[in-house]
Amino acid sequence: MLKNRFLSTFLMLSLLILSACGNIDSEQAGAKENKAEPSELILATTTSTQDSGLLDEILPIFEKENNVKVKTIAVGTGQALEMGVTGEADVLLVHAPKSEEEIVASGDAVNRKRVMYNDFILVGPKDNLAGVSGDDIQAAFKTISVANSTFVTRGDDSGTHKKELGIWTLVNITPSGDSYISTGQGMGASLQIANEKGGYILTDRATWLAQEKNLTNLQIVVEGSKDLMNIYHVMQVNPEKHDMVNSKDAEKFVEFMVAPETQDVIENFGKEEYGQSLFIKYTE
Question: Which residues are CB-neighbours of 103 under 8 A, at least 6 positions away?
Answer without folding.
Answer: 81, 84, 85, 109
